[in-house]
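Re-running the complex after MR caught last week's input typo. The corrected sequence lines follow. Everything else is unchanged.
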Amino acid sequence: MAYQFTLGKQNYLFDDLKSVLAKASPLRSGDALAGLAAASNTERIAAQYVLSELPLKVFLNEAVVPYELDEVTRLIIDTHDVKAFDFISHFTVGDLRDWLLENTTSGQNILEVSKALIPEMVAAVCKLMRNQDLIAVASKIQVITRFRNTVGLKGNVSVRLQPNHPTDDMKGILASTIDGLLYGCGDAVIGINPATDSPNVTINLLKMLDDVRLKYEIPTQSCVLCHVTTALQIMDKAPVDLVFQSITGSQKANSSFGIDLQVLKEAHDATLALARGTVGNQSMYFETGQGSALSANAHHGVDQQTMEARAYAVARHFDPFLVNSVVGFIGPEYLFDGKQITRAGLEDHFCAKVMGLPMGMDVCYTNHADADQDDMDNLLTLLGVAGCNFFMGVPGTDDIMLNYQSTSFHDALYLRKVLGKKPAPEFEAWLLNMGIVDELGNKRSVGDTNKLLLNL
Amino acid sequence: MSKDITIANKWQQLKQHTKARVALGNVGTGLPLSEVLALKHAHAMAKDAIVTKLDVEGLSQKCIEQAIPYQIFNSEASDRLEYLKRPDLGRQLLFNTNLKKTEKVDIVFVITDGLSAKAVNTNAFKVLNHLFPNINEDYSLAIAIVQQGRVAIGDAVAELYRADFVAVCIGERPGLSSPESMGIYTTYQPKIGFTDERRNCISNIHANGLSGKQGAQLLQYLIEKSFALKISGVALKLEVGEILKN
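Corrected-run output:
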């Protein structure tokens, strides 16, 4: 159905709900590329006014991607928690914004209604919020997950140690892994992006990481970020802890990644059966990022932030241990500069947390975007304050395989220091035991007699 | 002054195994100044690689030396700023008279700038010079040199040549350690509109990554397997370790 709003002397018309959502979005290059962005600044505000007055019920009656066409929409509608929705069913989007911000609304209160919130509602409320609002709400919400350690506790911030190498050289990857461990990183996961999707390389890398973990009794988990079908294929030949997959917000876009909900279910069931966790068994690891549906020409005329929130509905269905948005990875045609990357990172973290996901962030940029390390410092700090579960740890910020810049082992030290946060508790105990950090969390001066270096 | 307060990492031995920035040392929780400046220098080089130009003349000369028929094309993107903001234009061939004159070939190789013309200027023929002497001589070949191109422009070129197989040599996004990294994307029976699950990829061909010879071995494998099995993409697994051992 069509919507309209009069602002000053101008009347603005919007064809349908997805047009209101797209035009209410803060400006970004991807929506302009898709021809969905507001034509003027005032049209954008008119769309935000329309959105603020829309009852949440509208979102249940007007699917932005048709139910008949798309299994992600079917998942969203079919798993909607009708009972929990009772409590907020009279809300407009504006009411939801105020309720989320109220001091009397706790993070636990938000998690109790999170399955009553479909992604489109969460995307909508996000568009009415300033960066500060996104941080204030997200910082209330604690989403804790467990495998071999506990990630997401309020006083903690964890790091995925990302020791990539352009030719998957074992010694090169091991060197970066040891380096990261010596800076106190690796509690979220030690996760390698393989240079190619070769089953044999994946098996060898998994065996190597598992050997390191067992040898030094590190309370963490490993992952080689191969395609989910490759993981399924090698599961009986290699020590698979977490199963990884990139996901996005429509069936057609997921199909361009070579996946559907069925194969994710198969992978989730298979990894649960392995039962390799010790303190828990949440075993899926998902990556997302604004622009991926548009990139696959499978966005159905829906703006990129709303499509991103739809990916979170896919993620939460499989009870993941880790989820992160690779926010600045995809390029300037979707997020043009540091300002757009910052906004998107805060949006993604907020939407995921409100939907009950253990959200981390790959705070990153590529060299063809108008961004630099200062932008990353800003976003890392903002997300740290917002309570983001984990970040990436890449040697010196520079990923020599994926050719982009993320956050470094040093950045993790910085963030823990300025925010007074610690690693996952089981991992912190290990770091103390290994003489890598002291009781205050300061990195100790590690000599070349440290066990990690002696037995190389 | 900054030298005095820098804590050097004692695990320097790790550096021999990787070009990754390991064992950097620290000042408090931060990096030593020398490392900060080195990183900024690398970032500046990568930014400069984005705006390099495809060496059309030099690449044409190499096609002539290899006696492979070639043509020069442009995408619909007219300059770098438009190229960065409008990837859709970088996937389409600019209409001109060249577009009508092509004969059918079995395999077309596309050489295009992508995000680092420097990468293909340097590496495309390091791979192709190794590949051509070993390729089944029954295959008819052609090369398309395309300015301001994205990966999917290979599908448009392939339709023009009615090719059964396309290999797109393209400059990858420049990294700090590798402003000249080239990737190759291959597709069997390519059609306009194909998405990534139909493509195989060989990445990181550069001085500190895969060599030209290794790139050629992997490309030859993909050509042979794709023609034998009539597939490409996620269904075709690339056992890099196995292939490079032989």
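None of the earlier attempt is carried over here. Residues 142 and 154 of chain A are 6 Å apart (CA to CA). Residues 199-216 of chain A form the longest helix (18 residues).
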